C-alpha cells in the first residue's frame, strides 16, 4: 500500500484545476480498498473517492484522504440467445467499455460513446446521451458499504434511477463505493437515431448501412464537434442538467420566447428545456473572465483555459444560475459535484 502526502490533483480532474490532497492512494482491487479503509490512522479522516475526475469541481485543497479507484476488468458473466451480461470494474474507462462492446457487436451503449469518466461513476448519476441512459442497459452493481466494509448488491429497482440521479447521489450519498457494474447488452441491435443530430450526421458521413459502430462514429463526431477535449481545454462536459418544467410554465414561456427549444420528458406532464439554450439566450456563450469561462461552441460547458481555479468557476456557475432564473424563471441545477 502506497499512501502519499501533499499530492497535486491537477492530473486527476478533467478541469485541470490545481488542488492538493493531504493524503493520496490508488487502489486496484477490492481487497486493497478494504485494507485502506480499515486503517486506524485514517478512520476519522475525510475521504474523497475519485474515478475519472470528470464530474467534479475542486474548489480548494482536500484536507483528507483521496482514494483513486482503479479496479479494472471486463468479464462476460452470462449469456443467452438474445443477450450478453458483462461485468466491468469501476475503474474501467467508460469509453473503452463502449468500444469493447462495439468490437464484439454487442448493442446498447453505442449512443453513450465518448462520455468521459469511468464505469463506476456511470450509475451514480445515470449517465445518458442521445436517447439512452445507463438504466436501459443496467443489470446490477456491487458496492462497498463504507460503514460495515461489506459488499452489497443493488438491482435496477434498488438504484432508483432518475434523470442524472440515483440513490448514490441522494439517500445513499457518501455511504458506498461502487466496485463493479453488470450490464445487459443485446445481440440484436435496436438502433436509436431519432435523438439529436444523429440521423443528419449519419447522412453527412455518407453512412447508409446502420450499425452500432456507425452510430458510435456519428456520436463521436457530434461530441468532438461540439464539446472541447479536456486534454486541450479543461472542462467537465455538461455542467448543468437540462431542466424539466411543467407544461403550463413552458406554454407561458413560449408566448414570450417563441423560438424556445424543448424535448419531451419521460413524465408527460413535464417539458425538458436544454440548459445550453437557456444559458446561450442569457448571453453567456463564449464568455471569458481571465482563465475561466463558457465554451464558445457549447454554452453548457464551463471551461478552464489554463491556470483558472475552481472557486472562480463555482462563482461563475452561480452567476449563470441567477441570470437564467431572472430571465426565464428556471433554476438550473449542476451535474458537477462541488468539492
Annotation keywords:
339 residues; alpha+beta; Uridine Diphospho-n-acetylenolpyruvylglucosamine Reductase, domain 2; Uridine Diphospho-n-acetylenolpyruvylglucosamine Reductase, domain 3; Uridine Diphospho-n-acetylenolpyruvylglucosamine Reductase, domain 1; 5-stranded antiparallel sheet; 4-stranded mixed sheet; 20 strands; 24% helix; 26% strand; globular
Question: Overview of this structure, please?
Answer:
This protein has 339 residues and is an alpha+beta fold. The protein has 8 helices and 20 strands. It has helices at residues 30-37, 94-103, 156-159, 198-204, 212-226, 247-256, 275-281, 310-328; strands at residues 4-8, 20-27, 47-50, 56-57, 62-69, 74-79, 83-89, 128-129, 132-133, 138-145, 151-155, 176-186, 234-235, 244-246, 263-264, 270-272, 288-289, 292-294, 302-304, 337-338. The strands form 6 sheets. The protein has a 5-stranded antiparallel sheet with strand order 6-7-12-10-11. A 4-stranded mixed sheet has the order 1-2-5-3.
What is the rounded Rg? 20 Å
Average pLDDT: 92
* CATH class type of the largest domain: Alpha Beta
Strand content: 25-35%
Shape: globular
The main sheet comes to: 5 strands, antiparallel
Query: How far apart are the first and last residues' alpha carbons, in Å?
Result: 25 Å
- Helix/strand structural class: alpha+beta
Summed up, the helix count is 8
The appropriate CATH architecture of the largest domain is 2-Layer Sandwich
How are strands sequenced across the largest beta sheet?
6-7-12-10-11
CATH fold field value of the largest domain: Uridine Diphospho-n-acetylenolpyruvylglucosamine Reductase, domain 3
Q: What is the ordering of alpha helices and beta strands? A: EEHEEEEEHEEEEHEHHEEHEEHEEEHE
State the helical fraction. Answer: 10-25%
- Total E-strand runs: 20
Amino acid at each position: 500500500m502506497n499512501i502519499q502526502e501533499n499530492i497535486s490533483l491537477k492530473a486527476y480532474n478533467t478541469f485541470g484545476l490545481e488542488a492538493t490532497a493531504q493524503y493520496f492512494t490508488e487502489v486496484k482491487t477490492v481487497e486493497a480498498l478494504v485494507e485502506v479503509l480499515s486503517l486506524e490512522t485514517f478512520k476519522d479522516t475525510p475521504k474523497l473517492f475519485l474515478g475519472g475526475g470528470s464530474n467534479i469541481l475542486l474548489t480548494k485543497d482536500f484536507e483528507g484522504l483521496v482514494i483513486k479507484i482503479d479496479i479494472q476488468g471486463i468479464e462476460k458473466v452470462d449469456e443467452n440467445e438474445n443477450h450478453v451480461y458483462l461485468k466491468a470494474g469501476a475503474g474501467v474507462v467508460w469509453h473503452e467499455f463502449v468500444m469493447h462492446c462495439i468490437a464484439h457487436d454487442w448493442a446498447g451503449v453505442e449512443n453513450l460513446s465518448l462520455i468521459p469518466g469511468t464505469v463506476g461513476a456511470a450509475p451514480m448519476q445515470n449517465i445518458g446521451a442521445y436517447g439512452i441512459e445507463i438504466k436501459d442497459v443496467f443489470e446490477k452493481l456491487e458496492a462497498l458499504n463504507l460503514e460495515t466494509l461489506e459488499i452489497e448488491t443493488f438491482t435496477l429497482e434498488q438504484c432508483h434511477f432518475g434523470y442524472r440521479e440515483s440513490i448514490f447521489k441522494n439517500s445513499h450519498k457518501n455511504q458506498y463505493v461502487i466496485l463493479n457494474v453488470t450490464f445487459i447488452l443485446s445481440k440484436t441491435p435496436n438502433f436509436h437515431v431519432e435523438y439529436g443530430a444523429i440521423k443528419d450526421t449519419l447522412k453527412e458521413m455518407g453512412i447508409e448501412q446502420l450499425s452500432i459502430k456507425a452510430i458510435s462514429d456519428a456520436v463521436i463526431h457530434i461530441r468532438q464537434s461540439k464539446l472541447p477535449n479536456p486534454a486541450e481545454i479543461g472542462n467537465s462536459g455538461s455542467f448543468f442538467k437540462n431542466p424539466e418544467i411543467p407544461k403550463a410554465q413552458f406554454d407561458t414561456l413560449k408566448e414570450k420566447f417563441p423560438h424556445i427549444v424543448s424535448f419531451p420528458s419521460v413524465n408527460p406532464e413535464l417539458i425538458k428545456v436544454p440548459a445550453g439554450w437557456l444559458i446561450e439566450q442569457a448571453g453567456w456563450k463564449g464568455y471569458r473572465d481571465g482563465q475561466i469561462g463558457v465554451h464558445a461552441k457549447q454554452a453548457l460547458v464551463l471551461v478552464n483555459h489554463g491556470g483558472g481555479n475552481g472557486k472562480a468557476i463555482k462563482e461563475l456557475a452561480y452567476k449563470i444560475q441567477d441570470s437564467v432564473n431572472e430571465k426565464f424563471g428556471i433554476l438550473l441545477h449542476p451535474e458537477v459535484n462541488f468539492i
